[in-house]
Amino acid sequence: MRPTLAALLLVVAGPATAEPKVVTDIAPVHSLVAAVMGELGQPDVLLDAAADPHHITLRPSQARALAGADAVFWIGPALTPWLAKSLASRPETIALTEFPGTALITGHDDHGDSDHGPFDPHAWLDPANAVLWLRVIGETLGRIDPENAAAYAANAQKAAADLQALSAELAAELAPLTGNRYLVAHDAYAYFAGHFGLNLSEAISDSDAEAASAARLAELRDSLAAQPVTCAFHEPQQSPAGLETLLAGTDTPQATLDPLGSALAPGPALYPDLLRAMAGSIAHCAD
Ligand SMILES: [Zn+2]
C-alpha cells in the first residue's frame, strides 16, 4: 500500500519541529502565555471562561491534556487547590505566584472560615505581576524550545512594554476615583485596587468565593447604611443573589467586574482587554 500524502507530510514535518504543548489554568494566564508564544504555537486553557476557578473539578479530557503537556503555567494551589494533585511530579510546572518577586497580598480573612492559602490568590489582577510573569514564561519556553528562545524573549519583552504603557494610561483614568468606596461580589480585587490606589475591599464573599453567611450580610447592610458605596459590582462567575438582597430598596448603581475576562475572546489581547474593561467599568459605573 502506498503511503498517503498526509502520512508523508507527517514524516517530513516530524516531531522535532513540533511546537511545545503548553497548558494554562485560567484565561488571563492563557493570554500572557499566548502573547509570549506568538506565531510559535497556541497554549491550551483548562478552565472555560464561565467557570469559577475556586469550585471546579478536572474532566478526564483535561487530565489527558495535562498529561501530554511539555509545560504547565498556573496561578498556584491557593486559587485551584483541586489542580495541585494533578500537577505533582510534572517537570515544567510553573506556579506563577511562587515565582520570586511576585507581589502577594496576605488574605484578610476577617469574616468567616476559609481554607484557601495564606495569601489572596487573585495575583494576576496586579499588572506588575503580569509583567514579571511574562519574563518567567519567556524563559521557561526558551528552555523547552531552545531553538526559538530569542523569539520567546522578544515577544515577552514587547508584551511587557505594552502592558506597562497600558497600566500608566489606566492609572491616569482611575486617579480621580481613589477616594470612592465600592462593593464587590467576592474579595478578588485587592491586587487591582492596590496597584491603582482604589478601595474595592467591601466584599460580599471572601477570596475563596464561598457563599456569604447571614451574619456577614447583616454586617455589610449596617456598613452600607452608615457609609454608602459609589457602586456595587456583580461578577459573571458568582450568584447575584447576595448583592441583590443587600441592595434591595437602595439606588446604588450596579455594574459588572469580570476578573477572568469571561466575556472576552481568548488570546494575547484578553489580558490587556480585561484590565481595560475593569477600569472602564469602575470609571463609568455611576454615569
Ligand atoms: Zn476568585
Structural write-up:
The chain is of the alpha/beta class and 287 residues long. The termini are far apart. It has 10 helices and 8 strands. Bound molecules: zinc ion (ZN).
Radius of gyration: 21 Å
Could you name the CATH topology of the largest domain?
Rossmann fold
Structural class: alpha/beta
**Strands side by side in the biggest sheet:** 2-1-3-4
Q: Which regions contain 5 or more consecutive residues with pLDDT less than 50?
A: 8-16, 109-116
Mean pLDDT: 88
Distance between the termini: 71 Å
State the shape.
globular
Helix count equals 10
Indicate the CATH class of the largest domain.
Alpha Beta
Strand residue percentage: 5-15%
Number of domains: 2
Major sheet attributes = 4 strands, parallel
Name the descriptors.
Rossmann fold, 8 strands, 4-stranded parallel beta sheet, binds zinc ion, alpha/beta, 287 residues
Short description:
With 287 residues, the protein is an alpha/beta fold. It contains 10 helices and 8 strands.
Helices and strands, with pairings:
Blueprint: H1 5-13, E1 22-24, H2 27-37, E2 44-45, H3 60-67, E3 71-74, H4 81-87, E4 93-95, H5 127-144, H6 149-174, E5 181-186, H7 190-196, E6 199-205, H8 214-226, E7 231-234, H9 241-247, E8 254-256, H10 270-284
Parallel strand pairs: 1-2, 1-3, 3-4, 5-6, 5-7, 7-8
Helix pairs in contact: 2-5, 2-6, 5-6, 6-10
Bound molecules: zinc ion (ZN).
